[in-house]
Amino acid sequence: MKAEIISVGSSLLTGRAVNENAAFLTRELTALGITIAEAVMIAEEPEKLTETLKRAEKHADLIVITGGLGPDADDSVKTTLSKYLKKPLVLDEDTQNRIITFHKNSDLVMPENNQLQALTLLDSIPLENVTGLALGMFYQSDTHAYLLLPGPTDELIPMFNENAKPVITKHLLKNKKIAKKIIRLFGLTLAQVNHDLADLLTTETNPVVQLYPAGLEIEVQITAMHKSEEKAQEAIVKIEKEIVKRTQPFIIGEGDQNLPNIVRELLISKDLKITGAESLTGGAFLSEVSSLFEAGSIFEGGIVTYSETIKNELLGVTKETIRKHGVVSAECAFEMAEKARAKFNADIGVSLTGAAGPSSLEGEIPGTVWIGIATKENETFARKFHFGYKRNLNREYSVWSAFNMVRQLLVGEAIPDTVKKK
Predict the structure, then answer these.
(1) Are 298 and 273 a contacting pair, CB within 8 Å?
(2) What is the mean pLDDT of residues 108-125?
(3) Which is nearest to 53 in space by CA: 157, 139, 151?
(4) CA distances from 134 to 48, 93, 113, 301, 342 (A)
(5) Are strands 177-186 and 217-226 parallel, antiparallel or unpaired?
(6) Where on the phi/psi map is residue 325: left (φ > 0), alpha (ψ -120 to 50), or beta?
(7) Cα distance between residue 361 and residue 389, in whole Å
(8) Cis bond upstream, residue 207 (ω within 30)
(9) Helical H segments across 248-329, by residue range
(10) N or C: which terminal CB in the chain sees fewer CB atoms within 10 Å?
(11) How far is CA 147 from CA 384, 416, 421, in A?
(12) pLDDT category, 96, cuts 50, 70, 90?
């Protein structure tokens, strides 16, 4: 099955809005085994939409239209599609009541054209908007299927996940069972993963294997379809083993939780507290820790020690260590981690020090970073990293690498290239 995505909105064509909807829908539909034949952006013009529909029907079975469902005069997608398909619009009373209730509860006078949002094609399946007012719809003719979704991304995503996807599964995929698995990777580029999994990355197979960048991480998503849930899961397990075999050293977890949240769950499960002493990252690591849900149960405080003076006076790193080894050193990382752990009475102390760039520091090239870890029971250790020449990217990689070292420590995974304190 092939689909075309038509994104309606002048703001998309002027650069005032980014087409996040097409990216989301491409990902979700491909995972369902539906190939995206084309994705286009057009202005809110009835003639342009009609022209685009005619062209889309030549190469797509499912036509997805986003945007143009609001109450404004130029939100003409429903009326244009109605004329094009020669199918009248009818009022969905449940949606109309929601719109009326919303305005009453908000003490707002409801403009008459707001009821346009409650219109749907005759014989279509209305799709409730759980976060907004404009009604979506799914309509199937003898030759094509049409899916209408709202333009705001915070309305489109829940409508698709909660309402549209089940309808697509039932009416287009004939109730096949869908199983999904996400494997999270860190430490490889997208190009490297593409190379390593090249023979598995095709949308023409079942299961479907897809790669998605997720910040500094990479998501490997496996989606399988079958008449039975059991068979779909079996198909995932088989290909998952091959993916794990090829990417094992870089797997950090499964599912939607990113690296900081994976560490958070490990710390909570082990009833441990963490702290940090930061130099080049300037508090980015501590900020990420404190932004986590239930951060108070794993974190009580930390310290940013950017200058040598502050490292010595507030944290307690000795002048001798700085004079003899410099701040871009394992020895400085050892002391920073140990002093922070003791100062905040934490179970794990993490330190980050190095040359963020763009200039060298103490003869070390930009992107040279030492990350240290001190615990109550184990020997203090540190690892040296070489990232790149982009200052802020180096800082981001440093933070994520620190989280990954903590994760490796907590799960008992070997951490390569570490130096232990003598």
Answers:
(1) yes
(2) 76
(3) 139
(4) 22, 13, 12, 46, 56
(5) antiparallel
(6) alpha
(7) 13
(8) yes
(9) 259-270, 284-290, 308-310, 319-325
(10) C
(11) 52, 50, 61
(12) confident
Amino acid at 120: T
Q: 15-55, pLDDT tens digit by residue?
A: 999 999 999 999 999 888 898 999 999 999 999 999 999 99
Which helix (DSSP H) or strand (DSSP E) does residue 140 occupy?
A: strand 136-140
Contact in structure between 251 and 183 (CB atoms under 8 Å): yes
Quote the pLDDT of residue 112: 60
Give the pLDDT confidence score for residue 203 in this predicted structure. Answer: 64
Quick check: 216 and 397 in contact, CB under 8 A?
Answer: yes
Query: Cα separation of 128 and 118, whole Å?
Result: 10
Distance, in Å, from the CA atom of 144 to the CA atom of 358, rounded to the nearest integer, reads 55
Tokens 């920073």 sit on residue: 336
Q: What is the pTM of this model?
A: 0.80
Sign of torsion, CA 284 286 290 295?
A: positive
